[in-house]
Amino acid sequence: MAASNLTKGTLWGAVAGLVAGLALAIFLGLVSLSTGGSFWLMAQMAGYGLFGEAVLTPSVGQILIGLLIHFAVSAFWGITYGWTMWGQPKGLTLMVGAWWGGLAWAVMYYAVAKWVGAGDFVALMPIGRAIVAHVLFGIVLSLTFLPFQERAARPGRIVRRHHTRTHHTRTAQV
User: Fold this and answer.
1) Is 117 left (phi over 0), alpha (psi -120 to 50) or beta?
2) Whole-model pTM above 0.85?
């Protein structure tokens, strides 16, 4: 990827990641509220690695730091998506989005949450809900990224020149 395309993939990937992160936070917040939980569930989960069980009764500062962590991670996933998908066909860009959200869930659930010590806390969320939420993240990511996507220049097919026969006429030398 050329430097300018890397910059574009980074910029628009980050924007798309932030929008998708917002959609994920709102979706999980509303689902959590509907089941009697906290709207700030996403911020609590993101901040668990720093604050431990204190996030179960969070302060405003913990919520804000959790949101900052959540959006930084969302931007990271958006940037890596942007790098991967920049220049690809729009149909492929759109289709990969849902898969990318599933990949993000798997990495966050099986690796990152355990690494920061939040594995037990994150495991409290029903796994199906978490997967659906992250697939939604990927769909929003791809839909947000799509308008800024540029198709890479494809090398054209080889065009063979057709030689036409030219008739040379001899001129008499005098």
Assistant:
1) left
2) no
